[in-house]
Specification:
Length: 322
Amino acid sequence: MTITELNCKQTAYKNKLKKIEQFVNAFQAVDETKDYIELKSKLNILKDILKELDNLEKEYCALPEKMDLKNASDILSDMEEDAEKLKICSSFHITKLHPDKTDVSIPSTAEEFIDTAPKVHSEQCFALRSTATPSCTLDISRLSLPKHIKLADPSFHKPAKISMLLGAHVFFKTIKADNIKINDSATLQNSVYNCIVTGGLPTVDDKLHCFHLSEQEGSENLISKFWQLESIEDESLNLNSQTKFWEDHFVNNHRRDQTGHYIVQMAFLKEPSCLDESKQTAIRRLNSLLQKLEANPNLQQLYRNFIHEYFNMGRMEQVFEV
């Protein structure tokens, strides 16, 4: 069979699914017997479509390898997922028509799962109008899934609508004991619907988003704050004695050279006479330093170079004793 013929069959099954979906979504119980027969008929058609889709997938795989079948494979996967969801919805509608029937069959491609559930009443059912989940496409490029594993949702990493919520009394009965740890953040959990990927995965668009939340203020407060920021306080009234001394010293002793730099005479908090006879102490320390440098010629040369460089830069001057 050619790929054109296979695509035509795929389109035909897709149209059938669309009609069943319209019927299930718009279903309202009117005649219990007639409605039951129609729902059972739709359920049987869905089972047949799933079998045909499985055969169709095998026929696609039998085509030459050079053909790009990724798009067709994705479409078939989506169609199988839609058919499974419609089977579950049809089963619940049937159960609502027969409250005395407590065996609710939840179909699965892996195996038939029979759950003895409590009676389902209309007030226990909720229609979902939710956004897609996950909210963005997940990055599975580094996720090494075993080839023999069949996923319950092969497109789990793509945003899609929520079809149904399972209560805890049903959900935990669908989970099996065995699981496979893929990495530190993701685990394959086996269930009656095949394997479920659980855990956390990075997104394809892995960007950081920063949001700023601010509380709007009235115009009066904003204007008041503006004038507070723009006002200049007279700090001269708050100067302590030491700060006042430095300011007066700068005003009375500063000058500017040809390059525009400010030059200020060094200030003394106390009179130099308080140093007493410190000259002899300084000479003794200098002689002691010279003796140490004579014992280490390399260090002595480095010290001389430093003193000459400091002198040539104008940061020190020679003082002649008067």
